[in-house]
Automatic annotation (TrEMBL):
It comes from Gulosibacter bifidus. NCBIfam families: PRK00026.1 (NF000648), trmD (TIGR00088). It is found in: Cytoplasm. This is tRNA (guanine-N(1)-)-methyltransferase. The gene is trmD. The keyword DNA-binding does not apply. It catalyses: guanosine(37) in tRNA + S-adenosyl-L-methionine = N(1)-methylguanosine(37) in tRNA + S-adenosyl-L-homocysteine + H(+). SUPFAM superfamilies: alpha/beta knot.
Length: 235
């Protein structure tokens, strides 16, 4: 999969050299290109923002550097219609099913906004050349899209075949079956007077599976009544 990121803080993404995603890059599963938006400015100050038409607080990202950067990426795209994702608190909410959708794309372009946002015409122009989605991590405001892009790449990157060594480990996670995951334990069997639930030491696989499922249901009902209601509705 090819991933392009447009940002005014390219160093932010240096950490994608680490861990599972770093390995996936080294293996060629992920082909990452990070672009400094300021490289597409042509003034002495390398300005990427300006005051908003109509007045109001803050600054807006200018369309020209975006257009020039996106054009170069579209030109290099291995597909006819890549997916352009702009992280934004005004977007649709990022979810595990959406992470699965992203993991099946061939080319994703992330556009990281800063300040009060990007000139609206950039979204319209991008939509004339590609598929465009505005995506929010949740109902809170970040200073810019960079952290949101990191979170999204972490979420969908591990779903790309070959990135996580044992794909079975993905199946029982929180949000995969509409429930939160069950609690996990490892050795020692007693730690600071706290015992591992005895059923996990029983070796009885069916009983262990039933106990884990009960724990998932109980935890989801207690912590996320919204998820529980949706799950119970499906049963
Ligand atoms: N940029 C600023 N806030 C954001 C959010 N909540 N989700 C995604 N991108 C953002």
């Amino acid at each position: 999969m090819r991933i392009d990121i447009v940002t005014i803080f390219p160093q932010f993404f240096d950490i994608l050299d680490l861990s599972l995603l770093g390995k996936a890059r080294a293996q060629g599963i992920i082909d990452l290109h990070v672009h400094d938006l300021r490289d597409a400015t042509h003034d002495r100050h390398r300005a990427v923002d300006d005051t908003p038409y109509g007045g109001g607080a803050g600054m807006v990202m200018k369309p020209e550097p975006w257009g020039e950067t996106l054009d170069a990426i579209f030109e290099a795209s291995p597909v006819d219609s890549p997916l352009v994702v702009f992280p934004s608190p005004a977007g649709t909410t990022f979810t595990q099913p959406y992470a699965h959708e992203l993991s099946r794309e061939s080319h994703i372009i992330f556009g990281c906004g800063r300040y009060e946002g990007i000139d609206q015409r950039v979204f319209e122009y991008a939509a004339s050349r590609a598929r465009v989605q505005l995506v929010s991590l949740g109902d809170y405001v970040l200073n810019g899209g960079e952290v949101a892009v990191m979170a999204m790449i972490e979420a969908f990157g591990r779903l790309i075949p070959g990135v996580v060594g044992n794909p079975e480990s993905l199946v029982e996670e929180s949000h995969e079956q509409g429930l939160l995951e069950y609690p996990s334990y490892t050795k020692p069997a007693v730690w600071r007077d706290r015992e591992v639930p005895s059923i996990l030491l029983s070796g009885h696989h069916a009983n262990i599976a039933a106990w884990r499922h009960e724990q998932q249901v109980e935890r989801t009902q207690r912590v996320r009544p919204d998820l529980y209601a949706a799950w119970a509705n499906e049963q």
